[in-house]
Amino acid sequence: MEDDKALNFAIPVRIYYEDTDAGGVVYYANYLRYMERARTEWLRALGFEQDRLIANEGVIFAVRSARLEFVKPARFNDVLNVGVRVAARGGASLTFAQTIVREGATVCEGEVRVACLDAKTFAPRALPAALAQRLEEST
User: Fold this and answer.
1) Rounded CA gap, 119 and 94, in Å?
2) Could you give the CA distance from residue 129 to residue 107 in angstroms, rounded to a whole number?
């Protein structure tokens, strides 16, 4: 695994008919779904599965805030590149800068802050030590 995966990561997402609205463009809320998928795959590429984090560490991740800027419309059958970059790290949170690009042109960009929570109480918890270490090694 390359060391920069914690810093820069991307997945392709194809747009299906079900992703579009009456105007034939991607429904705005779907961009959040694509960003979520990319963050999940980013975590997986680092060696962490969310179901195992719940079972073994007792933690879950929840979106605390999201800010999106819609730049250009995406349409049916487009292939988008959904990027993830850790912009900031707190003791119990990660802030991601995310971009969605089509053929080199930005379609949507945003910032998503995710909190690490105790799976039973939903109280903030420190990032799991192995994940924090992996992030530290990558910077």
Assistant:
1) 17
2) 35
Residue length of the chain: 139
How high is the pLDDT of residue 139? 67
Q: Annotated catalytic residue: which of 3, 4, 19, 21? A: 21
Average pLDDT in the 100-119 region? 98
Give the residue extent of every domain in the chain.
3-130
In CATH, what is the architecture of 3-130?
Roll (3.10)
pTM for this model (two decimals): 0.92
Composition of the chain by helix, strand, coil, percent to 5: 30, 40, 30
Q: Which two tokens stand for residue 49?
A: 């599965």
Shortest CA distance to 87 belongs to which of 79, 78, 96? 96
Is 21 considered catalytic here? yes
